[in-house]
Design brief:
Length: 416
């Protein structure tokens, strides 16, 4: 059962949480017990339909306790594993609404009551949370709107007074913008230090097809087609501001650039790649140095400038250099594995793990190859032992996002 103030984002958060558990194999149902706010049921219905989650509500019944009980009974009969009940927003000074909240709680006897708090209310959170705690005795808190200018530090410190755990935080308005609350990771993002673990989780949750790119990187190869695939994956990963908060050093670079501007620059780079032939896409970019007229043709076909094409090729060369360095490390690691061919499997894996750590990496995946998390850690590993410096990489990416004279003018133009 969800409780909280008006406008805190309860209805949206209900759908986000339902989608979170549904994607993990649970049967989840949503019940709208908000009969007070006009349009509450329509909002939940729209969100649930979009996320393909079963829902229950009533346009005629005005008693929220009856609606909640009927909805819970319906989903229990249909053997749903998780039932989420949305209630109307209320303020601690509204005693009648507080009594209504307790009536709903008595009617459905929820296993867990969750309070939804807006991060922007700051220190006021303490008084509100205590009042709700006394009335509904909630066992968990979700803090919403942490993607705004208010980072939520005040709300979190105030909530600590209730001695109730924060289980999730809302990081945006989209259905995927819900994260488990992890204090060290949250503080790192708050201080602009990034959240690489969160980035790896986010990439893996999207189930992006990166087999070819990872295979190329382990071989020390990074083509223009690989760069285009990575640009398209970045576009799928959500708002650039959210991504920037996860990557060390990048949040500062994106500070003066909104999501729309950053997305436009990425799209223009994809247009450039789409105007290339297969031979050009599968090359390492040297073909453009040998035949500069190709750059002019690609710029015309993509509606961009020659300078933007040059910037993209420069970015590809930087990434290719990183891939070559990683590929050499991979080959050395494979040679070491082959040299131990007759040894104990556990000993081989231990040796591989040690080698990965010396490279700045992490775990070993199936078949003795590093998993995606390890590859990303290796790319972000702190300097020594052959690891790649993520801060340096972000400076290079800064050129990619920052343009370089091409600007946003010219439009897409007549593509060929």
């Amino acid at each position: 059962m969800f409780v909280g103030l008006q406008g805190a984002g309860k209805t949206t958060t209900c759908t986000k949480l339902a989608r979170h558990y549904q994607s993990r194999g649970f049967r989840v149902g949503l019940v709208c017990a908000d009969t007070f706010r006009a349009g509450a049921f329509d909002q939940l219905k729209q969100n649930a339909t979009k996320a393909k989650i079963p829902y229950y509500g009533s346009l005629t019944e005005t008693d929220p306790a009856v609606v909640a009980r009927d909805g819970v009974d319906k989903f229990k009969k249909e053997r749903f594993e998780i039932i989420i009940v949305d209630t109307s927003g209320r303020h601690r000074q509204e005693s009648a609404l507080f009594q209504e909240m307790m009536d709903i709680q008595t009617a459905i006897k929820p296993d867990e009551t969750i309070m939804v708090l807006d991060s922007s209310i700051g220190q006021q959170a303490e008084a509100q949370a205590k009042a709700f705690k006394e009335a509904a005795d909630f066992g968990a808190i979700i803090i919403t709107k942490t993607d705004g200018h208010a980072a939520g530090g005040g709300a979190i410190s105030a909530v600590a007074a209730t001695r109730t755990p924060i289980v999730f935080i809302g990081t945006g308005e989209h259905m995927l913008d819900l994260e488990r609350f992890d204090p060290p990771r949250f503080i790192n993002k708050l201080l602009g230090m990034g959240d690489m673990a969160g980035l790896v989780e986010h990439v893996q949750s999207l189930k992006l097809d990166q087999k070819d790119t990872i295979k190329h990187i382990t071989e020390g190869i990074f083509t223009i087609r690989d760069l285009r695939d990575q640009l398209q994956n970045i576009m799928k990963m959500g708002p650039l501001s959210k991504m920037a908060g996860m990557i060390p050093g990048m949040s500062g670079m994106m500070a003066n650039m909104d999501d729309e501007e950053g997305s436009l620059k990425l799209k223009r780079m994809i247009y450039i790649c789409d105007s290339m032939t297969d031979k050009e896409l599968d090359s390492d970019g040297k073909i453009f140095i040998d035949q500069p007229t190709r750059m002019t043709r690609v710029a015309r076909g993509s509606g961009t400038t020659v300078r933007e094409v040059e910037d993209l090729l420069t970015q590809q060369r930087m990434m290719a250099g990183m891939a070559k360095k990683m590929g050499g490390n991979m080959k050395n690691m494979q040679k070491a594995q082959q040299a131990m061919g007759g040894g104990n499997k556990a000993q081989q894996l231990a040796a591989m793990q040690k080698r990965l750590q010396s490279m700045g990496g992490g775990g070993v995946g199936a078949g003795g190859m590093p998993d995606l998390g390890s590859l990303m850690k290796m790319m972000g590993g702190g300097g020594g032992g052959g690891g790649l410096d993520m801060n340096a990489m972000m400076k290079q990416m800064g050129g990619m996002f920052g343009g370089g004279g091409g600007g946003a003018g010219g439009g897409r133009g007549g593509r060929r």
